[in-house]
Amino acid sequence: MSRLLRAGARGAALCAAGGLGAYVYGTQFEAHAYTLRRFEVPVLAPGTRPIRLLHLSDLHIIAAQRDKLAWLRDLAGLEPDLVVSTGDMLSAADAVPAVLHALEPLFAFPGCFVPGNNDYFGPKRKNPVRYFFPHQRRVYGQPLPWPDLATAMSDAGWLDLTHVRRTVDVGGVPIALAGTDDPHLYRARYAKIAGPADPSAVVRIGLTHSPEPYLLQAFADDGYDLVLAGHTHGGQVRVPFGPAIVTNCGIDVRRARWLHRWDERMWFHVCAGLGTNPYRPVRFACRPEASLLALVAPSSPR
Questions:
Q1: If you average pLDDT over residues 159-188, what whole number do you get?
Q2: 231 with 248: CB under 8 angstroms?
Q3: In whole angstroms, what is the distance from residue 164 CA to residue 181 CA?
Q4: What is the mean pLDDT of the chain?
């Protein structure tokens, strides 16, 4: 029996050491390993020039994150045709100047945005097991100054697409855009933007923070070619070379990040984002990221 006890103790010690090592790796290295993902999305008509779209989401900025702010500023070197943010830019009440500093070089390009749940309320310390039981009573943090940030980004030239439909000229081509408020806080009102997407646009793009299936279906039914979302952090902690463990929304774990088809009529892209909850700043097998989408004509007719 004593041998069994010793073997069990050694096993427990090894598991604890492995868990500690994974946590140190996830917080000290991977959470800062900012990565640019690149995808081609075949949504344009033949003969249309490619459109470079930079998709940002879930920045979760606090003022002290100098490496993240510098990395974001460097993205302007990509010279995108359009910058899209799908929410959760904030993680602290005093972070608005830091967000604007990070985005300032990107304001030179056309852009648009919608809010996420953590733009309205700050993060709180909570048991991560709660993510496996999404129907529990929600716990909200302190209110955040989202109206101030939204106004500042609008003043810088970006379009607030919160329950707005608009066709905009981007590099000489018309792009139809529509967005919702945050579905995670039950603020999305798709009826406010419902109706067939502009058929004269070269591409029709929907924005929402959380990739909820009912919203993806609504955009698809209205003829959108592509929907952009975030919120999931790609799972934030994933099985190595496998799926997310949890998504914190209605999308399934195998589509918690990156580019996927929806209903054979539409693509959707979930950006795994750049941030974490500041109380548990860990990412594992899921690097923080932004995405550069090349919108192109398909190789064969759709």
A1: 97
A2: yes
A3: 9
A4: 88
C-alpha of 287 from chain center: 13
Q: At residue 73, what is the residue type? A: R
Question: 3-class secondary structure for 20-51?
Answer: HHHHHHHHHCHHHCCEEEEEEEECCCCCCCCE
- Closest C-alpha among 10, 11, 108 to residue 54: 108
Using only the alpha carbons of the chain, give its radius of gyration: 20
Of all residues in the chain, what percent carry a pLDDT higher than 70?
A: 84
Residue that the structure tokens 């139809």 belong to: 176
Q: Treating both helix axes as pointing N-terminal to C-terminal, what angle do 146-155 and 96-103 enclose, rounded to 10 degrees?
A: 30
Instruction: Give me the helices (H) in the chain, please.
Output: 2-28, 66-74, 96-103, 117-120, 146-155, 213-221
Q: Which tokens belong to 47? A: 């003969």
Q: Which of 16, 26, 10 is nearest to 285 (CA)?
A: 26
pTM of the model: 0.88
The DSSP-derived string for 167-187 is EEEETTEEEEEEE---TTTT-
List the helix and strand counts (H, then E) for the chain: 6, 12
- Tell me whether residue 258 is exposed, middle or buried, using C-beta atoms within 10 angstroms of its C-beta: 0 to 12, 13 to 18, 19 or more: middle
pLDDT at 301: 47
Per-residue pLDDT band for 241 (boundaries 50, 70, 90) equals confident
Report CA-CA distances (Å) from 41 to 114, 171, 227, 257, 260: 21, 18, 11, 15, 10
Q: In this predicted model, what pLDDT tens digit does every residue of 186-235 receive, in sequence order?
A: 999 999 999 999 999 999 999 999 999 999 999 999 999 999 999 999 98
Give the type of residue at 293.
L
